[in-house]
Design goal:
mainly alpha, 130 residues, 5 helices
């Protein structure tokens, strides 16, 4: 049995693989940031531009970033670059914040979500440069 793959599907798969690789590289290289690239690409590739579509993009990025972060954390810790004492202090708050943030994502207008996300990126970038 032969499986027929259209050229368009194959090229789209190649783009997705390249974007995934780039997101993984950025996340590993900088310790974060792969999700920003993924969110941009999810938004471009998702035909549903409604509020639900934007929420789906945010949710998909969170799910995709988890394995990226796990791989990055393992890599950093294997080289001794992870302060476990500090890490363990942040985990409980991060878990509570993650649950609360996921709950609020469904309650807040997507325009506000996009604005908050953009502001966080700007503030984080500003802090990294200065």
């Amino acid at each position: 049995m032969k499986i027929k793959i259209e050229k368009k599907s194959l090229s789209r798969l190649a783009v997705l693989a390249a974007v995934g690789s780039a997101a993984g590289f950025i996340n590993g290289f900088l310790g974060a940031g792969g999700g920003i690239l993924l969110l941009y690409m999810f938004h471009k590739l998702n035909p549903n531009k409604s509020g639900e579509g934007a929420r789906d993009d945010f949710a998909a990025v969170v799910a995709a970033v988890l394995p990226l972060c796990i791989v990055s954390a393992i890599s950093y810790s294997s080289r001794g670059s992870l302060d476990m004492h500090l890490f363990l202090r942040f985990v409980p708050g991060a878990i509570v914040g993650g649950v609360l943030g996921a709950y609020l994502t469904d309650k807040i207008d997507t325009a506000i979500l996009k604005t908050v996300f953009a502001l966080l990126i700007i503030v984080a970038g500003f802090n990294m440069v200065f």
